Here is the input.
Amino acid sequence: MTIEFTLNNETKKIDVPASARLLDVLRDKFALKSPKDACGEGECGACMVLVNGRAMNSCLIAAGSVSGKSVLTLEGFKLTQRYKMIEAGLLEAGAVQCGYCTPGFVISIESLLNHNPRPSDKEIREALSGNLCRCTGYNMIIQGVRIAIEKGDGLW
Amino acid sequence: MVEAFRPGNTAEALRILSEHTCIVMAGGTDLMVHRGQSRGFTFPLLFIDHLEELKKTYRKNDAIHIGAAVPFSDMERHADIPDILKMIIRRIASLPTRNMATLGGNICNASPAADTLPYLYAVNASVVIRDRESTKTIPVREFITGVKKTQLKNNELLTEIIIPDKEFGINVYRKIGQRKGMSLSKAAFLGMADKPHDVIRDIHIALASVAPTIVFSTEIEKQMINKNSKEIDAMKNRILDQYAALIRPIDDARSTAKYRKQVSLFMIKHFLEKL
Here is the structure.
């Protein structure tokens, strides 16, 4: 199936099976390695991407369903001011250890702040409940989000 | 074989379904996990996630209509969705999954553990089923016929879910899982009742994950109508015995039949005692 979509703000056209996982298309056809192939069933959040501004697990997305939509991976998002603020927040809070889960967390954080610029701790926890981290625990990550919100005053 | 269809509108989707056997994909969150295990699909995919006609949520004639392509996360935010349904939805998987998954998909997938089915049974929700020539409305209680089985035919499409616009005074929802977030249920319980002046005028009890389909009985419910707390207490064991006969759980990776049965009866008992 020929799929035309926007990937990291550029129009792309590619011929792949409609049922291929978007995750595999991103990693194998576009060499975008920030989405990680971990659980493969929407549990861990390591493959998170933004589709039309909303966080979704790319392992659960059939390539054919992104026709006409806009997909943003960390490779595209990292060029923004918002990314730099989230990065600074996570670094300051010591929220990154091995880093495997971090791209997915960053995408979920952006999706949250985009829809809700002033979330409560409960709302942060809920928005990040689809991302698993086995190194740092979650308190530092939530602290990182708090710092990003404070420092990035007005960015979201 | 044509590999996939991405129709421009619902009419085109129905025409395709009249000519081809397809797997209809809305959010795809269950289908894609299944694909991961079996590598590919047996039939061509028919995508409906993008169809604007199926993305509407609206109120009409004392009922709420939800399109088959509305993701759960939109329902969570919609003013017309009853609070108890929002609460049930917020316990489904995680937000990214709810950004894709749909109520229509939850119904058509017809899992015994489907999180929304106890609610849809309790309020007697219906589904709108269309083929190329006709449109019909079927109660969800009849639409689901078994484990992963529904009345839906190959040429038909579920286009809408209709929920009666009725809220209850007493609402108890319990989902028993391994943890609070991201879990599939070992057992789930929904109890809803109206009990003005200590007399039960309306009551519904539904359980998921503890039988091939949702445990639900209007027969048992009828026995509790027009009863007060004292009378309910006196008939409690008789009610529990009747539910015990309907609860037929299995042992699987998530839990055991023994635990499921015990916890289910305990949740019903607790609800009856709190009425």
Summary: Chain A is about 40% helix and 15% strand. The CA atoms of residues 90 and 96 of chain A lie 7 Å apart.
